[in-house]
Specification:
- It is a single chain.
- About 25% of the residues lie in helices and about 25% in strands.
- The protein contains eleven helices and 22 strands.
- It has an eight-stranded parallel beta barrel with strand order 1-2-3-4-5-6-7-11, surrounded by five helices. An eight-stranded antiparallel β-sheet has the order 17-16-22-13-14-21-18-19, with helices on one face.
- Helix 2 runs parallel beside helix 4.
- It is globular.
- The chain starts with 8 loop residues before the first strand and ends with a strand.
Length: about 400
């Protein structure tokens, strides 16, 4: 029988305060987020210094750790502002910094000698020698490159100090570049040096055709479908069915990708993996996720799924355009009493429609909406104004923050 000494943590993304609260509410052990600078995702709102202080305080009161990304490849102008940024970090009392650049690493060691340091996937760690040297320099954790197999990860685990923690991604978008290092945005999207400083425009998801130099007006698709071929468009990662194998390889932290994704995505995916990990902890020798847990991964906007490099060279190029999206979030539950759900509308929905309610730690519950009311308790047939308060007739109680969705 397998014994568990250090059970893996579930690490969820937080692009803003709403997504942070969703990650915490739906079961994350830790969250990772960014300030307004030095983070590899500039599309999310991220956190001002005061918002960061408030976010850490909120998480710590809930027993959740906070890791702050400081993982861009900075320019000289960037590092001129580092000292000021580290004062923000110190005031916020985050649990760890995620770092890719060796100069930033040593600056943090000098300025914040007690700060826990995690080495970003941007550093491209693929062997035990590099992992061990980062540990010797003072790193507490390494976030391995995504291009490693489970066997390679296990060897790194076996040949590094047990105190060194190992983190890998278990779910979300993947890059066609190595460990997230990409210049496509620089060359194609006019982002200059911003590709590795938070400014990825995801040109790998675009449709491309070939042209011949003497016939610039003639475009030749590499036929896959009518819209072209998506030869750079990676599938998404989903390791829900293999969490036991990841744990046995010695991985300390299971990371969900998606700081630029929605609050709904954060809630649903965190909830599904939290339930799966709780199942794994109960019986690690006979792990099999329940069907609803796997189905939840299909009910968010996603590309085709694959298992990345974990089991060898992947077939991870999606041959079609865009995302698969079959559900839309329509409301969030604020409270539940007297046979009514008090909700905040997010998207249009109507009486007579069937919806599902996603609450923490549970399979989704189906509900056909029989009655709705506005704040004055006047009957509604359609909720059509985002942010309005809506009361829905429902005899079941749900937690504040539960998400209501409908099939498109």
């Amino acid at each position: 029988m397998t014994t568990i000494s250090n059970f893996p943590e579930l690490l969820a993304p937080a692009g803003d305060r709403a997504r942070l609260e969703a990650a915490v509410r739906f079961g994350a052990d830790a969250v990772y987020l960014a300030g307004k600078t030095f983070g590899m995702r500039c599309a999310p709102e991220n956190f001002t210094p005061q918002e960061l202080i408030d976010a850490v305080d909120f998480c710590h009161k809930k027993g959740v750790k906070v890791y702050l990304t400081c993982n861009t490849l900075p320019t000289c102008d960037d590092v001129d502002t580092l000292d000021e940024y580290l004062e923000t970090v110190k005031a916020a009392k985050v649990d760890a910094l995620i770092i890719a650049d060796i100069g930033i690493f040593f600056a943090v060691r000098r300025t914040l000698p007690d700060m826990e340091i995690h080495i970003s996937t941007q550093a491209g760690i693929v062997n035990h020698l590099t992992a061990r040297e980062f540990y010797n320099l003072g790193a507490k954790r390494i976030v391995l490159a995504r291009e490693l197999s489970l066997d390679e990860i296990k060897r790194i685990r076996d040949e590094t100090p047990p105190e060194l923690e190992i983190e890998t991604f278990i779910h979300g978008a993947m890059c066609v570049s190595f460990s997230g290092r990409c210049l496509l945005s620089s060359y194609i999207a006019g982002r200059g040096r911003e590709s590795n400083r938070g400014g990825c425009a995801q040109p790998c998801r675009w449709s491309y055709t070939l042209t011949e130099v003497k016939r610039p007006d003639e475009h030749y698709p590499i036929i896959e479908e009518d819209h072209g071929t998506y030869i750079l468009n990676a599938k998404d990662l989903c390791m829900m069915e293999h969490l036991d194998k990841l744990m046995r390889a010695g991985i300390s932290s299971f990371k969900i990708e998606g700081r630029a994704k929605s609050e709904y995505y954060t809630a649903v995916i965190t909830n599904a993996y939290r339930a799966a990990l709780d199942l794994l902890k109960k019986d690690p020798d006979h792990y099999a996720p329940e069907p609803w847990m796997l189905e939840e991964t299909l009910k968010i906007s996603h590309r085709e799924y694959c298992t990345g490099f974990y089991f060898g060279q992947p077939d991870n190029i999606q041959r079609t355009a865009g995302y698969i999206r079959e559900y839309d979030v329509v409301a969030k539950v604020d409270g539940s009493e007297n046979g009514l759900l008090r909700c905040t509308e997010l998207n249009r929905f109507s009486v007579g429609e069937s919806v599902e309610i996603v609450d923490k730690g549970k399979p989704p519950v189906s509900l056909t909406i029989s009655e709705m009311f506005d704040e004055e308790m006047q009957p509604l047939s359609v909720a059509r104004h985002p942010e309005m308060t809506v009361f829905i007739r429902c005899e079941h109680k749900f937690s504040p923050g539960a998400m209501i969705r409908k099939k498109l």
